[in-house]
Each structure stands twice: as C-alpha cells, then as structure tokens.
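User: I'm putting together notes for a lab meeting next week and I want to include a structural view of one of the chains we've been expressing. I don't have a solved structure, so I'd like a prediction I can at least talk through. The sequence is below, exactly as it appears in our construct file.
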Amino acid sequence: MGSEAKKRRIYEELPVIICEWHQHVLPHIHRGIASRHLTPSGLKMLHFDAHPDLTFPINVRAADCFNKDTLYDQIEIADWILPLCYEGHVSRVIWIKPQWAMQINDGEYDVKIGEDKGSGGLRVNWKDDYFIEELLYSKEESLLNAKDIQMQVQTLNSDLNNKGMCKIKENNGGYEPDQDSIAVDHESGQEAGNCLFQNSTCKSFNGNYLLDIDLDFFSTHNPFKLHHLEEDFTRLIEIFKFEPPTQYSDEGIEKATVQRHKQLQKLQKTILYHVQMENLSFDSLECLNLINDRATSVTEGEISKDYYGLLQKISGKQKEKGEAVDLDLIHFAGMSSELPHHKSTMNEINTAFKNVENFLLKQPVPQMVTISRSTEDDYTPSDQVNYIQENVIDMLKRLYGKISITKDYEP
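Assistant: Thanks for the context. Below is the predicted structure for the 411-residue chain, given as structure tokens.
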C-alpha cells in the first residue's frame, strides 16, 4: 500500500463528540482511527476530569480489548482509557484534575500496561494505591505484550485573577474571557505559583492528541454520598477501607493485594448472603461480578457482620419508604466512598473555564474533542450541567473556529 493511501485524512471541521456516559466516547475514537482521521498510534490524550478513568474490569480479559463488541459491552465509565493504551493507539495520557480530586498524586510516571500472565486480565505496573486497591497492579515481568505509557497528573490552579494571567468578564451571569488578558507562556515554562498547574513546571506538548473533557471537572458530585445518610455513608467508608502497603516493594504490594482481595471477597459474599436470607434474585446484580471467584452459596461464618447489619438497616429503610432495594447502589457506594465531592459555586466554575482556556490557547489543535456530560449518574450536578456544557462549547468555538458537534445522548 502506498504512502498516500496511508496518509491521515483531515476532518473538514473539528469533531466534537458529546456523550452522556464517558465510555461511549470510545466507539467514536475507534471509528476515527479506522477511517484514518485519527493517528492510529502514538496519540496523546489531554484528559480534563475529576476522576482518572484508569481502571479496567478485573474479570475482563486483556484480549477483549481487540474485540470491540465484547469490549463495549463490558466496560463502564472509568474503564475506557486503558484499552486505548493497550491497543497501541494512545502512548501518553495527561490527566488534568481539579483541586478536590486527589486519587493520584501530581507527577510524571513511566508505566507499562499488558496482559497478566496469571489471570489474562489487563494490568499495570504502576505502584500506586489507586491501582493496588482495584487489584490492577502486576509486576513488569508478569506482563505480556506490554506497552510503554507516559502518564502525567496535574492539578489545575483554582484562581489566577491576581496573577496577571486572565480576567473574567461577566456577561449576563456567564463567562467571557478578557481579550486584553495575558495567557501563560507554556513554551518557556513558569514556576508553579505563576502557572495554571500546581506543583509543576508545565510546557506545551507537540504532536497529535485527543482532547477529552468530562463536565464533572468543573463541579463534582459523589453520587453515592447523595443517596445515603451521612451516618450510613461513614460506616460504608469504614467497612470498605483499603489498607495500603506498608512498603511498596513487590512483596509489600503482593501482601496488600492479597488482603484487599480477601476483603472484597468477604464483602461480596455478604451481599450474596443477604440475598439468600431475603429470598431475592441475584442474577442481575453487577456487584457480584467484581472479583473472579463468584460464590453460589454462603454461610454466616464467611460474611462481614458489620456489613450485613448495615445492609439490613439500609434495606429496611428503603422498604419502609416503599422503595426498591438497590444492593448494587449500596455496594458500589462502598467501593466508591472516597470519590471527590465538591459542588462548585458559579464563580469557581467560571474561573475554571478561564484557566482551561488559557492552557488550551498554548496547545496545538486536537484531532478530536470528546465530552462526557456525566449527569444521569449524578457526577455532574443536574442543575449545572447545561450551563457548563454551553460554556465549554463556546470556549471550543473561540479556540478552534468551526466545529462539528455530534450529540450522542438523549436530551
């Protein structure tokens, strides 16, 4: 095949894909690669989000990343970036996070991602609690078909109004940049105190990249916290608490991983025991598929009595109110109890618009923009999502001129 046939095609207008659920952007990216509009390898991703989205279902095989129909059916909102890395499309991920997101520390990390020899699942050799807690860590020598990935995590400063970077103009309550303001010079790099990022000197990057924006970057709910009383949510945090390694040697991580697996196994069995005692159906419960060894029956001696008591309490309250008992919601609340929770003020949202635009002004034009609304699952506050989306679209128009918007969600 000649070089002309392999040459990347150019979109007439920059595509902006808006989805409700974040994993639904993945088919659009794959189609862009298949049609040769996106670079098939060596892509970078600029990921604005309150969450890393760097997990993967531990029961799904790494090989399924290359079977698109299977992959799409099995991944959730936080599982869509690692497949792009393992497939060889994305080689660098830059997660830009708000100040209240603290899942991974700021820094630059060289990571390998591959198929775990033992389980066949997708794993990384990143020695961070985020991956150890999710049972996704594996030693480098245990990874097959490993890919090298550059990961960068940076926190965006909350306010630059007093640092000569950019001013906010109010326009009918909305955000409008001051055309006389001075953007950050990322070509030369600035000290952290005078830069959009905290704890780092940041520079412009070159090359082909995808721009991804989750609207919960600007204002963030922990939806599980909203659905439970503070007392019950605090108990869930205690029950599901992860004990990190005392030492981050291979042996220390292995010990912590084994302990975490036993903990999750016991909590999963507790859900099943509750189902048995209440004569409920467990066929549709997603929380029973979180770890590999799903039991079919459980005895009282195998369960967490604290968790069982809480399940009975919460279920009893829901029954009294005439509500359906959602065991998945309870269990996932425990698994996600330490997610960020910060509903922003309008001033905070407008300041974030300014900061993001200041940074993007110094970057090349992306090959594609993907946006996740994340409001049906309550991560983006429903009373703010439309305002945020409208202003993000206006920002993209100012930055890139003509854009082609695809709304892949039910209005």
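A couple of points you could mention at the meeting. The chain has two domains: 12-222+340-408, 224-335. Residues 224-335 form one domain.

User: Perfect, that's what I needed.
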